[in-house]
Amino acid sequence: MFGLMRPDMDALSPVQRGRHRRYYCGLCQGVGEHVGQAWRGVHSHDAVFLATLVDGLVTEGAGPDRCRCPMLPVVHRQTHDPASVALRFAVGAQMLLADQWVADKAVEGSRAARFARDVLGAPIGRGRALLDGLGLDTAGLSGFEHRQLAVEHGGGSLAQAAEPTAQALALLFGEIVRLPGGPDAAAEPHLRTLGHALGRVIYAVDALEDLGDDARDGSFNPLLDDGLPTPRSVAAAADLLSDDRARLEASLGALPWLRNRDLVEHTVGALLARADRALALAREQAAPTGRDRLARWIAQPAWVHAAAAMLTAWTAIATLFTTQAKAAPVAVEAVRRSVMDWIAPQAQKCPCDDCAKGCQGCGDACKGCGDACNGCGDSCKNCGDGCGTCCNDCNGMIDDCNSCCG
Questions:
Q1: Contact 199, 185 (CB under 8 A)
Q2: How far apart are the C-alpha atoms of 366 and 373, rounded to whole Å?
Q3: DSSP state, residue 183
Q4: Counting Cβ atoms within 10 Å, is residue 288 exposed (0-12), middle (13-18) or buried (19+)?
Q5: If residue 330 lies in a helix (H) or strand (E), which one and from where to where?
Q6: Higher pLDDT, 147 or 397
Q7: d(C-alpha 125, C-alpha 276), whole Å
Q8: Is 191 in contact with 182 (CB distance < 8 Å)?
Q9: Does residue 339 contact residue 353 with C-beta atoms inside 8 Å?
Q10: Predicted TM-score (pTM) of this structure
Q11: 195 and 173 in contact (C-beta within 8 Å)?
Q12: What is the C-alpha to C-alpha distance for residues 57 and 188, in angstroms, rounded to an integer?
């Protein structure tokens, strides 16, 4: 998983936010108690989602607890009991997620990831021991990174590239019925469907959000064709998300909930809303103007790429700290677009069909965008005289010029 199972905290009620916070802090506390205090920072919203899901289905829910916050040692946080089934499952799953994330980087050739995986060997072993102690079989998750790499090297479609992630989550979710006090076997097909659909949506959202970055640096992305996004590939992503949205709704409705259904459904809804935003951005990038902007960016020298990378990184960090995380991709893309417009103004290549037919001069404007073809400024709508940049040189034959011509 990719850290995408994050609820929209602003949309939760105060009571719901408190419940989610207790799972979040309980996972941190659980990692410290079961794996080691030094690893308390290795936790994510993905594992918090798993804790919420499992605790909503097992017979005995997690009881209340409290712990000292490692970030603010003078503060004690209300938590859920880290010895509960849900938190032990989430801690073990979190360590597997961390291991798979590092393993994925390692098989791609990262030396730092290979070193990190060696360092993580002991704590990951303790995480696996937690799952083994709960009676779960996670052997099918071994070697996931090699299956994923083989699919990506094969250059498959989005559905094919997402399948290893979907199968891994289907296996993990299906094991929930074997937990102590877990739901009966009739829930297993619904849990597997839930995991499979979530895996496909998560992979699709990650591919859509990384579409521009992957095109710029030449990384693999199943939505790229000859290095650029296409309307056809984005439409295929939209179809996949539509299918999985229906599967998610059906499987969530079929589970035997005892608690937490509202939190789980809200988090899944937040993921789907993020998918819609990523899809809208991808459609812009796959449109002719977006493809042209990406092509011009790829052709720029290395120093331009480095400068823009620093600027966009700063924008992303500032956005995360000042607004909601969901706004970061949009803000970063806006900065990149501004950089490209500064490097090569859009007026040099007007996208309007009218320009392609040939403009006759300053007075002829594109009917689609309203800009004069030669970049001199806006043209009057009806009189045919080209206005200057401040619209102060119309000759009086004005019927309905732009707003600054009166």
A1: no
A2: 7
A3: P
A4: exposed
A5: helix 328-343
A6: 147
A7: 38
A8: no
A9: no
A10: 0.74
A11: yes
A12: 12
Cα angle at 337 between 226 and 326, to 5 degrees?
95
Write out pLDDT tens, residues 388-399: 444 444 444 444
Closest C-alpha to 47, from 6, 92, 107, 94: 94
Measured in residues, the chain has a length of: 406
What domains appear along the chain, each with residue ranges and CATH number? 9-292 (1.10.600), 362-406 (no CATH)
Asked whether 229 and 211 are in contact (CB, 8 A), the reply is yes
* CA dist list (Å): 314 to 116, 303, 338: 26, 17, 15
Please tell me the distance from the alpha carbon of residue 207 to that of residue 159, in angstroms, as a whole number. 11
pLDDT tens for each residue of 269-280: 999 999 999 999
Euclidean distance between the first and the last CA atom of the chain, given in angstroms as a whole number: 58
**Residue 210 vs residues 17, 60, 99, 185, 295: alpha-carbon distances, Å:** 29, 40, 22, 38, 16
Residue 26 binned pLDDT confidence (cut-offs 50, 70, 90) = very high
Nearest to 82 by CA among 121, 130, 137: 130
Angle at 296 between CA 294 and CA 227, to 5 degrees: 45
| CA–CA distance, 259 with 58 (Å, rounded to integer) | 9
Pairwise CA distance, residues 299 & 303, whole Å? 12
Cβ(138)–Cβ(176) below 8 Å:
no
